[in-house]
Amino acid sequence: MSSKVGYKVLVVDDEEDILELLKYNLKKEGYDVKTASNGVKAVEIAKSFLPDLVILDIMMPHQDGVETGRQMRQIPELNNTYILFLTARTEEYSEVAAFDIGADDYLSKPIKPRALMSRISALFRRKKEDKKDKSIIKIGDLSINKSSYTVLKNDVPITLPKKEFELLYFLAGNPNKVHTRDELLQNIWGSDVYVLARTVDVHIRKVREKIGEGYISTLKGVGYKFEA
Q1: pTM here?
Q2: Which of 89, 106, 131 corresponds to the end of one domain?
Q3: Backbone dihedral region for residue 58 (phi beyond 0: left; psi -120 to 50: alpha; all else: beta)
Q4: Which of 131, 151, 183 is the last residue of a domain?
């Protein structure tokens, strides 16, 4: 039996041939697969299916993939769900928009099934590693729980999307040290994903807005540091 059995994948694309191609290859690898041909339907399915991974096309009619991903990131039960975007676009803004809402990976069409399966396996390896880490970081009035992906400030919950949480957890777990943007990209997004440095800045800004000023400082031209 495949070790991948048990992982659930939702594939969202308005092109029927792509849905069938991905469904076939994913099932062959042992994944539990559901499909949706539009963003609205995808959100409905995700609420009950609770996928471990959503493969999401960006260019879709009625509701594009970025908006669909944004809505999924607002569903607490999907906090630990990976989102991998597919797009035929090459413009920089679509990539930035995807990672701004919490994308975990990003692939351009045409799709190469073997390469896609490799990227998916890498994501799920990361998921297993995450489950092994049950530590809780407590600094000042913040409590950051990796096992439940929750943040408390003075015992009041703060909601952070997955990438924002991972960024905060990494910085808080390595306090009083300046981390370059490249280092943060490597540790949070990984070497297999191409992400612009601006994405780090956007996520830092959003984390600061939620946990308050005074925790994460900026060393201009170098990077960021969590003050403990």
Answers
A1: 0.61
A2: 131
A3: alpha
A4: 131
